[in-house]
Design a protein that fits this description.
Number of helices: 10
CATH architecture of the largest domain: Sandwich
Helix content: 40-55%
Mean pLDDT: 90
Low-confidence stretches: none
Number of domains: 2
Largest sheet: 5 strands, antiparallel
CATH class of the largest domain: Mainly Beta
CATH topology of the largest domain: Jelly Rolls
Distance between the termini: 15 Å
CATH superfamily of the largest domain: Regulatory protein AraC
Number of strands: 9
Shape: globular
Order of helices and strands: EEEEEEEEHEHHHHHHHHH
Structural class: alpha+beta
Strand order of the largest sheet: 1-8-3-6-9
Radius of gyration: 20 Å
């Protein structure tokens, strides 16, 4: 299954994709990064844990304030609650498998206190890189592929086989990573960044000032700028413009015209919107709307 775009709750950045297959609280899908709006997967989070295996190309994955480049054959474990996103900066046609599972499904309840709760969402274990050149890494990467095939084919008793592989993947993540060491500073940074992004997602259609964003994170304006540079490699107001463009693109894929999309996305004028849209996408909003309409007819 190819996921082209997934919805994100505007007020919390929580991904709204249903990570379920039939009765299982788990799902695995294949996605190509450059087919998402703006050609990347924006920073977001969800309660489920996630495993990634790159199938083709090269992707840059961000987890909280760290950045990792993964090539075909490599993978990544991302803990629940961590901000994460992905880009295909080299336009390599990066495709990856994303396996998501509800934490409670990973182990029997009797083992939660010892082997789930201490590791889940731990600030000291936000991610684990999976290296195909090592035996443990290769075993985990194979399990991701096996789980994907089981969820696609649904052979008899596949639910039991999926549950067993998820348990193995979780064991590999906690046994192959560091002991969870509570990192209060990292946790505070992540929560402040979430609050600032949430505020933008709630207020992007209004006039937005740097001071407003900084206040949402209980930071000074200069510290707010440092946070955005560290987490996103950009500026707070630059992110506001990018998010407005993303919202406008979603509107343009429907029945909304260019002028209405501009105002509903928070731009002061249609001309300013057209200028920013062209800088972000390399085309005008009208050209984008026509392109999307043609692609919809072809699908």
């Amino acid at each position: 299954m190819q996921i082209r775009d997934f919805p994100i709750e505007s007020g919390s950045l929580r991904e709204l994709t249903s990570h379920r297959t039939s009765g299982l609280p788990a799902a695995c899908y294949e996605t190509r990064i450059d087919r998402h709006i703006q050609g990347r997967i924006p920073l977001h989070w969800h309660d489920e844990v996630q495993w990634v295996r790159v199938e083709a190309g090269q992707g840059v994955f961000r987890v909280n304030d760290e950045e990792l480049t993964l090539h075909a054959g490599e993978g990544l474990f991302i803990n629940g609650g961590c901000l994460h996103g992905a880009e295909d900066r080299l336009r390599s046609g990066c495709v990856y498998l994303s396996l998501n599972a509800a934490p409670a499904f990973l182990l029997p309840p009797e083992l939660h206190d010892a082997y789930l709760i201490p590791y889940l969402g731990a600030a000291g274990l936000p991610y684990l890189r999976l290296d195909e050149t090592t035996d443990p890494g290769r075993e985990l990467l194979d399990k991701i592929g096996e789980t994907h095939r089981l969820l696609e084919a649904k052979p008899p008793f596949y639910e039991v086989a999926v549950a067993a592989r998820l348990t193995g993947l979780w064991h590999g993540a906690i046994a192959g990573g560091p002991e969870p060491q509570p990192d209060r500073e990292r946790d505070v940074r992540s929560e402040r960044m979430k609050r600032m992004l949430q505020w933008i997602h709630e207020h992007y259609a209004e006039p937005v000032r740097l001071a407003d964003i900084a206040r949402a994170g209980s930071l000074s304006r200069s510290e707010c700028c440092r946070y955005f540079n560290r987490f996103l490699g950009g500026t707070p107001l630059g992110y506001v413009n990018e998010h407005r463009i993303r919202q406008a693109m979603e509107l343009l894929r429907g029945d909304v015209n260019v002028t209405e999309a501009a105002y509903r996305a928070g731009f002061a004028s249609a001309s300013h919107f057209i200028e920013k849209f062209r800088l972000q996408t390399g085309m005008t909003p009208l050209a984008y709307k026509k392109k999307e309409a043609r692609e919809d007819e072809d699908r």
